[in-house]
Write the structure tokens for this entry.
Amino acid sequence: MNILISNDDGIHARGLRVLADALSSLGEVWVVAPDRERSASSHALTLNRPLRVTKVAPTWFTVDGTPTDCVALALMGMIKQKFDLVASGINIGGNMGDDVTYSGTVSAAFEATLLGYPAFALSVVAQRRVNFTAAGRVAVMVAELITQHGLPRNTMLNVNVPNCRPSAIKGVAITQQGRRRYGDIIVRKVDPRGKAYYWIGGKEPTWEPSEESDYAAVTAGSISITPLHIDLTNSRAVKELQRWKFPWNHIPSTAGRRHVTA
Ligand code: MN
């Protein structure tokens, strides 16, 4: 089995090494990861400049781009190797609830899913004093189960592991994406040259209570596994919007302005 690994914490991240070590028990591991930390880079693809690739070990490569760039390059021909599975992580910090839309870790797995490969993202829910031991074992368990069962169409697994020793983990919960209550704050300061700058800071997130959520599972000491797909359509809202009357013929014309893209 050939396994491709990427992450958004960058090539030097400890979690990447733990993931590679763990999955090497199942097959040959190839690593294509950003050359620096690209957390919160979301599903960004670099189109406005060339990408440079550096081989740092026989099956290890860095790219001066995003996690999505790494996976796209690896799966679309940069590596002459057929992959059976793609794994992203192990991220420092949980990727739960609405935060999955910002996540480079989750997006790397999404990119693989879009290209037709089974994939999962793996994160430890802690910012410091991170214990990767449990997550390494979870990686092997999830990889084996995906190989055994296959994944539902267009679906990846978003796995979040509590930050504790393996024996303290309560179990595995199949969960839903939770809802975060945002406590982000903008800090305004002045630089040494008198110019203002802003820094997006975050307080510890709070969460809307829901027993089925990823956050609830991890808080209860369980591994959270959420099946995600990239279709963001709100199916219930489609029905509601279909009841709206759109007065297309009554939209006032904007004289002289033409909405045509080059
Ligand atoms: Mn990260």
User: Anything to note?
Assistant: Residues 193 and 199 are 17 Å apart (CA to CA). DSSP finds six helices and 13 strands in the chain. Residues 8-9, 39, 91, 93, 105 surround manganese (II) ion (CB under 6 Å). Residues 133-149 form the longest helix (17 residues).
